[in-house]
Design a protein that fits this description.
Order of helices and strands: HEEHEHHEHEHHEHEHEHEH
Radius of gyration: 22 Å
Strand content: 5-15%
Structural class: alpha/beta
Distance between the termini: 92 Å
Oligomer: single chain
Strand order of the largest sheet: 1-3-2-4-5-8-9
Shape: globular
Number of strands: 9
Number of helices: 11
Largest sheet: 7 strands, mixed
Length: about 325
């Protein structure tokens, strides 16, 4: 007579089947998401999403500004600000950070050191070629900008710092998701993070070419970047302007104020916006933001403002 199958063999077989089913579903889900992202964000011949490449607006011997975009985003969200800065007389460089503006598979393999190393290299190059350099960061780019400003080698020579809706204090659910990411990442390689509240201007929202997707590795890198920047804020010694919307859906107002209070320099200003969401450089009222940014840079050694321009409050 056949021997009864041991219970542990049944359990092992069931576990193997469940594991195989999980891997199959994860792979199917990843392929669907990658196909949808590829259709929405077609790549150019250089492997970069069309319109997502680095921005370089040169002005030899002029003051320069480094622009750093946010997580899952591209320099496209900084294009209006880049144009305003260049028109005012600045050389502008907005690099495409590692893992961004390509395929979401690239975003799935990113690490926080990649972003910081790239930001440092870009700043060093600008400081090599220009006597006066400022850094402006949006969201995660704001966290990178804060870390650059706190860097004992690079920070002291910065002319000014501007943090636009800096991502310095991730909400508790985001921190928890990052902590558990190795677990849920086994089920889903990509999660949707699109939120219409990030950009209130409907036309600009339709033009965005960010991923709108987060991966386990990218989420861990984002939280670690924000944590390192928050801890570095007391070491920021250069004039710092921080701009934040009271309607920001990514960073609560109380968290923004707490971060601002930690900034080490006494020469700092927190400007509140009552219109627009998280992506300030493309949202409603962006020109008012640009005017304040330009005035801040001019007041701290950048290109002199024209007569009649708005002063720094």
């Amino acid at each position: 007579m056949p021997q009864p199958v041991a219970p542990f063999l049944i359990a092992a077989a069931a576990g193997a089947a469940a594991g195989a089913a999980t891997r199959w579903w994860r792979q199917r889900h990843a392929l669907r998401v990658e196909a949808a992202a590829g259709a929405r964000l077609p790549l150019g011949p250089d492997g970069v999403i069309i319109g997502a490449g680095a921005l370089t607006l040169d002005r030899p011997h002029a003051p320069a500004v480094l622009l750093l975009h946010g997580a899952g985003d591209t320099p496209n969200s900084m294009r209006y600000l880049a144009g305003a800065l260049h028109a005012a007389g600045y050389a502008v460089r907005a690099p495409l950070l590692p893992g961004h503006g390509r395929t979401i598979r690239d975003f799935a393999a990113v690490a926080e050191d990649d972003w910081m190393d790239a930001a440092r290299a870009e700043l060093r190059e600008l400081q090599r070629r220009h006597a006066w350099v400022a850094v402006i960061g949006l969201s995660m780019g704001g966290a990178l900008a804060a870390r650059l400003a706190a860097d004992p080698e690079l920070g002291p020579s910065l002319g000014a710092v501007v943090l636009l809706a800096p991502y310095l204090t991730p909400p508790a659910p985001v921190r928890l998701a990052a902590l558990l990411s190795h677990g849920w990442g086994a089920l889903a390689e990509y999660v949707n993070t699109l939120d219409p509240r990030s950009i209130h201007d409907e036309q600009e929202r339709a033009r965005t070419i960010g991923y709108g997707i987060m991966t386990p590795a990218a989420l861990r890198a984002l939280v670690r970047t924000a944590r390192a920047a928050f801890e570095a804020l007391p070491s920021v010694g250069r004039p710092t302007l921080m701009v934040h919307s009271s309607h920001d859906n990514r960073v609560a107002a109380v968290a923004a104020r707490r971060a601002f209070e930690r900034i080490g320099t006494a020469e700092k200003r927190l400007m509140w916006r009552e219109i627009g969401g998280h992506i300030l450089p493309v949202d409603h009222g962006r020109q008012e933001v640009f005017d304040v940014v330009l005035a801040w840079l001019a007041a701290h050694g950048g290109v002199a403002r024209e007569a009649g321009a708005a002063p720094v409050a």
